[in-house]
Amino acid sequence: MTSFFEEETTLFVDLILPVPVPSLFTYRVPRELSGLVKVGARVIVQFGKKRVITAVIAKIHSTPPPQYQAKYIMELLDEQPIVTNHQLELFKWVAEYYLCNIGEVLNVALPAGLKITSQSRIQLNPEFEYEDLLTDQEAIVIEEIKKHQTLSYEEVERLLQKSNITSIIKSLVGKRAVILYEEVKERYKPKVVKKIRLTSAYVSNAALSALAGSLEKNQKQQDILLKYLSFIPVYNNPDLNQKGLDKSIFGGDDSISASSLNTLIKKGIFEQFEIFISRFEEIPAGSTTAITLTETQTEAVAQIQEHFKHKEVVLLHGITGSGKTEVYIDLIRQVLESGSQVLFLLPEIALTTQIVVRLKKVFGDVMGIYHSKFSDNERVEVWKGILDGKFQFVVGVRSAIFLPFDNLGLIIVDEEHESSYKQHDPAPRYNARDVAVIMSYMHNGKTLLGSATPSLESYYHATSGRYGLVEMKQRFGNAALPTFELIDIKKEKKQKKMKNEFSSVLIEHLQHNLKHKEQTILFQNRRGYSPYMQCEECNWISECANCDVSLTYHMKVRELRCHYCGHKEEVPRTCPNCGSPKVRTIGFGTEKIEDEINLMFPEARVQRMDMDTTRAKNAYQQIIQDFEVGGIDILVGTQMVSKGLDFDNVSIVGIFDADRMINFPEFRATERAFQMLTQVSGRAGRRADKPGKVLIQTANPGQKLLERVVLNDYIGMYESEIGEREKYNYPPFSRLIKVTVKHIDEATANRAAKVLAEKLAGNLGLSRVLGPQPPLVERVRNLFLFDILIKLEREKINFKAAKSFIQEKVIDILTDKTLKSIQVVIDVDCL
Ligand code: ADP
Ligand code: ZN
Ligand code: ZN
């Protein structure tokens, strides 16, 4: 059948679905939407039989898919794109580089609030009449539906106080009593304020006088009018009426004045209206005293700009306390003035509140903040704020690189060496620092990497000329770097001077500091009370049922916890194996340090800062504030205390267990330990008049790495390490790809990993494929793991081709019928 209308071409859209599928999906555009679809806009589609999901349009065309009948899109959500072309390009790059699906990138990029969810709801079947067929519980459900028209699953669960209601719902459907349907709803809700104002008829002085007179008989209504006028002096300036007054000023909805107010609204004297407001506190820019850059800082800014004339990336290597933030601020201001956007990345925002507050004071409302402790709604507001030009400048954590920028002039990656820029799970397993470099390139912008302890990779690129290098070697205000003391705990133990985990030297310094009201930071990079419990009689050790690790003892909550899978157990009173009461804790974490200080110095105000004490949204900020105003004497923490904190009054930093970091069996251990120790130490003595001291407890004070930390000899560390890396062909001389094979059965996992490694080595060469071997923790969440490490030289090898070969071989394994339910994870540039 040919008809006249077929002349008009049918439109199709290729969609990115936020699910792990390898390709785009083609859907058909209903005729009424054909003029409205745009690349980057969201649509709702049916995916599979049951799911309704949000997808983003990547392409519009008129070619029907050859293999399948395209379904219609159900709804178009946006008139204007919410994903920019730059983003689509970036998502594609990330998917290709990190060997994952573009849908997985979209899924991480899009805040949950922009993804529509569908919710099953239950509604009465209008044709239902056999009420006597119902069981008691079913009857309760039906009664409730009659009251509310419809119910969600959760509402039924609450009603019946049961968590599994599927059988009841099934039965109701079977009896044709109810109908199920999907309700699609947008999660993002703008924040709304209800306001009132005078209707236009009353916005003149004459009308107002007349009104006041006519209300004389009604005291309450007159009060409302007068209150309104006291806030909004319409007499003086009629324009003020337009903005109105928050309705809440007159009390809640059931207050006495509310009813009078409603009468006034009904009479047409006042009118009610709503406005959308931002969830973010409005701070005007420039609400801070201007800072003059020092000569060193001015020089650094000039050098960075000079490098940017020829180079895409500059590394700013400035020691702790050198004043890098002010250098960033100067550059950001210039780029914003030129009309381009700026992105400032931080490892973990919560951990750097001080910088954020400083930036907010300088840049005010043009600055958006984006991090993991924000609610969905807040994230959507940042996203939309960038799209509509409100936020020209964003400070955020790694996922902020996926925000909808369209004109980035500069990306700053502060503390660029931090491993938290790398996402481990789920895919995309990206490193935001590296993606930032590509992204600036796509926008024709520049990248500035900053650190006191650069990653070997970045420093290598900077000294080999690929990046520009700018150094700041003095602390601001000529404050001295702290002095060090290495405390030999082996010796102290022999002389019986140690008190539990504390050396006598550290105790003396703590006493001195408490007496002089100066603050101390104590660093132990392990949370909980102790990493395991052990029976003295039979050597039983607390172990996780699902993972191959010991359970950490948490004293306050009286629990044993697995730090890998979250498994929790009660603390046994006696040994579960032999019944002996002699169960003791071994090793120590932050909680034990805190406990011991409380025992030794009951007068000291101690606060612990680790993942366990900072789960709540503002917990971290609260601790920082308390410490800042002197409400805390001793701050005990994990690596959280090492990041970017800037306090005036910290004169002692104590470091426990330095050897564990240094001896970690991993090729980056030396680099990492140097970075960690230097960063923590950098929290001490940041004022010129208050020199700081760092006390490191170690069993081996003579080791080279500690000497380098003490001398702040980054270059020495770099040179010896880079030699090793070159010799053994590790990054930056090669790229590493880790392929992890997982299976519930150890032998199957091992066999699959061996087969895979052989296939890989067959093509890539034996020297490039290491393993398989079990990782440090061999079993996690009941899955046995085997790692294959692939080293690919930077030169000589076609990285792209090698990667697609690896991907092919992995797919072979995944689709091998003899290896049921095998899982394989590919991590490109694993850390
Ligand atoms: P870094 O990030 O390099 O460790 P910061 O940027 O935190 O160092 O600066 C260290 C301290 O010096 C901060 O308290 C900062 O306010 C102060 N500071 C830096 N530059 C200046 C300046 N030009 N004028 C006044 N104070 C400054
Ligand atoms: Zn025992
Ligand atoms: Zn576990």
TrEMBL record:
Domain Helicase ATP-binding: 305-472
Residues that bind Zn(2+) 2: C544, C547, C562, C565
Residues binding Zn(2+) 1: C535, C538, C575, C578
Pfam family, one: Zn_ribbon_PriA
Entry keywords, A to Z: ATP-binding, DNA replication, DNA-binding, Helicase, Hydrolase, Isomerase, Metal-binding, Nucleotide-binding, Primosome, Zinc
SMART domains in alphabetical order: DEXDc, HELICc
Function noted in UniProt: Initiates the restart of stalled replication forks, which reloads the replicative helicase on sites other than the origin of replication. Recognizes and binds to abandoned replication forks and remodels them to uncover a helicase loading site. Promotes assembly of the primosome at these replication forks.
Similarity comment text for this entry: Belongs to the helicase family. PriA subfamily.
Complexes and interactors: Component of the replication restart primosome.
Cofactor(s) listed: Zn(2+)
Source organism, top-level taxon: Bacteria
EC number: 5.6.2.4
Co-factor: note: Binds 2 zinc ions per subunit.
Organism whose genome encodes this protein: Dyadobacter linearis
Alphabetized GO MF terms: hydrolase activity
HAMAP family: PriA
Protein name, per record: Replication restart protein PriA
Domain Helicase C-terminal: 570-728
Gene that encodes it: priA
Catalytic activity line of the entry: Couples ATP hydrolysis with the unwinding of duplex DNA by translocating in the 3'-5' direction; ATP + H2O = ADP + phosphate + H(+)
